[in-house]
Amino acid sequence: MSEGHGPADAELMRRFGEGDDEAFRRIVERHERPLLGYFWRRCLDRALAEDCVQEVFLRLVRHRGSWRPDAKFTTYLYRIAENHWIDRYRSRKSAPPAASLEGLTDPDDDDVCATFAASGAAPGDRAAQIELGSRIRNAVLRLTDEQRAVFALAETRGMKYEDIGRVLGIPVGTVKSRMHAAVTRLRELLAEEGRDLLR
Amino acid sequence: MISCAEARGELVAVIRGEVSRETADEVERHLGRCAACAAERDLLRRTMEVVREHVQPESSADARMRLRSALCDEFARDRRKRRFRHAWPAFAVPAALLAGVLAALIAAPGAETPAPRAMADTQRRARAVASAGELGPRSMDAVSRGLAWLAAKQRRDGTWSAGAVSDAETTASVTASALLAFAADGQSPRHGEHRAALSRARRRLAELVATGFSSDPDRKPLYAVALGVRALAATYALDRAEMTADERRAERELLTRAGRQLADFQAKDGGFGYVPKARRPDSSCTLFAVAALDELRDADVLDASGVILRAGRYLDGMRAPDGGIAYAHPGDRRAAPALTAALLALDGEFGPSRGVSAGALSFIEKAVQTGDDALLAWSGAEALARHGRPLAAPVASLLASQREDGAWASADDRRCASAGDAVTTAFGVLALAQVYAR
Q1: DSSP character for B67?
Q2: Residue B92 CA: distances (Å) to CA of B89, B176, B204, B365
C-alpha cells in the first residue's frame, strides 16, 4: 500500500509518539479517505462510517505509545478499525447493514446516492446512475459479514491478502477463499439484478 | 495441467496479482484453452470493476470538520492524561506489599524522620546529576537498565519474588508492580524487547486474579485484586489493537469479572478495606481501588464511575486541614505524604477537581527530595508532573541512588526495606517514567 509523498507512516508515527501533533495530522490526511472507504464498504452507511473513522483516529491518539516500528502501520491501523467495527456491531445488537439498507432504498436518500455513486455523471445519466449504484450496493450488503470484511480490506488501497490476514487474525488461505467467495457471490447477485450491470 | 475447478479457484487471486508467477502462467495457459473459464475471468474482473466504481465514498466537508475538531479536543485531553497516567499503580503497589511484607502504611508517619545512612551522599550526587544537564537521556537509560534488571530476575513461572513471603497475594502484587513498570515504558506482552517475559507474567497474573484470593483480612486481598486489575488493564490497553476478536473478548471478560470483584470491597461509606464489604475502610485501600477502577474505565472495559464517585466522597472526609490526606481514622489528622501525593495525582478523576493548595504541593516537593522512599518518589513525581511542578529534584535523587546493575536497593528504603529489590526497582522505573510525560 503506497504511502504517497512525504515521510513514511513509521516516521510520522515516531514523531507523533514524541509529541509532534502535526505529524499525526499528516497521518489523518493520508489515511482518512481509505479508512472511510473501508467502513463504508462494511456498512454502506455514510454517517456510521464517518463516526467510525473519527473513533479510530481518536483511539490512535489515546494509545499513541502503543505502536512500534516492528509492526506495519497500516496493519495496526486496520486492526484497530476492525476491532472498533466489531465493538460497534455488537453494541448495536443488530446487524448495521440491515439498518443501512433501509436508508439506501429510501427514495428521499438521493443526496447520499448522488454523493457516493454519481459524482461526475452527466445530468441525463444521473437517475440511471443512482439506480445502478443502489442495486450494486444492495448486492454488497448481501455478502456475509466475514466476506464483506475481507472484501472491504481488499478494496482499501489494494491491501494484499497477507496484510488482510494479519488484520483479521486469519490465515492467508482463508482470506483467499473468502475473497473468492465474495466476488463470485457479487457476480451472481449482479447477474440476478440484470446482466446489463456487468456490461 | 490444471482443471477448470482449480483454475476458477485462482481467478480472483490472479486478477488481483496475488499468486506466484508459476500459478499465474498455469492459469493463463488454461484460459487460453478454455473459453468458459476465460469468460468467467472476464465476468469476475468486470464485477470487481463495477463494484469498485459504485462503492466509492467521499468524505463530506462537515465530517472532516468534525473529525478535526474532535482530534483537537483529544490532543488537549491526551496532553493532560499523559502527565499522570502511570501514577496510581506505583502508589498502590507498596500498599499491596504492606499486606504481608512491609510495615503498615499507617505506621509511616513515625518513619518520616529517620536519616538513612546514604541520604547525604545521595543528595550530593543528585545535585551533581541535575547540574550536568543529563536528566532526560540519563532517565531513559536508567529506565532501560532498571527494566533489564527486572527481566533478569523474573522467575520461570513468570512472577517476581518479594523476599521471603510467597503467598498468592504478595506474588500477585509484586508481579503486577513489575508489569506496570514495563507498561510505563510502553512494553507489554506484544510490545518491546521483553514481550515474551511479559507474556508469561501476564498469563500467570491473570490466573492468580481469576482464581481469586484469600478473604483473610491479615493478607489484605484488596491490594492483590486491585493491583492485578490495574496491571492487566494497562497491558490490555497497550495490546488490544493487536488482539484477535476472541482474545479481546476473553480479556474483557476476565477484567470485567475482576473489576466487579474489586467493587465488592467498597463499604457503605464509600471507602474500601482489605476484604469485601469491609467494616474498616481506609484511605490507602480506597485510593488503590480507585486507581484500578479508573484504569478499567480508561480502557473502555468497565465504567464504575458511581463507585469512584462514592469513594471520592469518602476521601473528602479524610482530608487533613492542610489539604493532605490521613490514612484511616477521622481522628488522625496527620497528612501522610504518599497518600497526599496519590490523591493529588488523581485529582479530577472523582469528578470536578477538589482544588489543590500550593501548600500541599510544596509538602510533596519537600518530601520527595530525600531519595530514600521509592514509593513516595513515584507517587510524588506523578503528583508534581500533573500539577506542572518541576521534577528535577526527585528524578535526580533516583538517578543517583540507582545501583550499577540497574536495580534500586530495598535495603535503604524507608518503606520497602524487607520487600525485595524487585519492588523498589519497579517503583524507581515508574517514577522515572514521568520524564517521558514531560
Answers
A1: H
A2: 5, 10, 20, 20
Q: pLDDT, tens digit, for every residue of B336-356?
A: 788 888 888 887 777 666 666
So what's the pLDDT on residue A4?
A: 52
**Cell reading at B283:** 484511605
Closest Cα in chain A, distance from residue B27 (Å): 15
Beta bridge partners of B165: B162
Contact (Cβ atoms closer than 8 angstroms) between residue B172 and residue B292: no
Q: Which of B44, B54, B192 sits opposite A137 (nearest CB)?
A: B54
pLDDT one-digit tens code per residue, B377-392: 888 888 887 777 777 7
Chain A residues inside the 8 Å CB shell of B48: 183
Query: What is the CA angle B292-B293-B295, rounded to 5?
Result: 65
**Nearest CA distance, B352 vs chain A (angstrom):** 21
Instruction: Write down the pTM of the prediction.
Output: 0.53
Q: Which A-chain residues 41-70 have CB contacts (< 8 A) with chain B?
A: 41, 44, 46, 49-50, 53-54, 57-59, 61-66, 68
User: Which residues, 6+ apart, have CB-to-CB distance to B234 below 8 Å?
Assistant: B89, B179, B180, B183, B188, B295, B299
Q: What pLDDT does A131 receive?
A: 73
Nearest-CA residue of chain A relative to B436?
A18
A186 touches chain B (CB under 8 A): yes
- In this complex, is the C-beta atom of A128 within 8 Å of any C-beta atom belonging to chain B? no
Placement of cell 490444471 in the chain: B2
- pLDDT tops 90 at residue B178: yes
pLDDT band at A133 (very low <50, low <70, confident <90, very high): confident
Residues A14-40: b if buried by 16+ CB within 10 A, e if exposed: bbbbebebebbbbbbebbbbbbbbbbb
Cell numbers for B112, please give them: 518520616
What proportions of chain B, in percent to the nearest 5, are helix, strand and coil? 65, 0, 35
**B13 contact A CB<8A:** yes
Calpha distance A72→B44 (Å, rounded): 30
Q: Cα–Cα distance between A57 and A52 in angstroms, integer?
A: 9
**What is the CA angle B138-B143-B147, rounded to 5?**
150
Would you state the pLDDT for residue B228? 95
A140 contacts in B (CB within 8 Å)?
A: 51, 55
How many helices (H) and strands (E) are present in chain A, helices listed first? 10, 0
* DSSP line for B5-41: HHHHHHHHHHHTT-S-HHHHHHHHHHHHH-HHHHHHH
**A33 contacts chain B (CB < 8 A):** yes
**Closest residue to A190, CB basis, from B18, B47, B186:** B47
Condensed to tens digits (0 to 9), the pLDDT of residues B243-293 reads 888 888 899 999 999 999 999 999 988 999 989 987 788 888 999 899 899
In this predicted complex, what is the ipTM?
0.78
Distance CA B357, CA B351 (A): 18
Q: What separation in angstroms does the CA of A65 have from each of A78, B11, B255? A: 17, 41, 22
Question: Cβ–Cβ of A36/B43 closer than 8 Å?
Answer: no
| Out of A63, A76, A116, closest to residue B237 by CB | A63
A187–B47: do the CB atoms touch at under 8 Å? Answer: yes
| Beta-carbon contacts below 8 Å between A and B | 137
Inter-chain contact A161–B58, Cβ cutoff 8 Å?
no
Q: Are B67 and A28 in contact (CB < 8 Å)?
A: yes
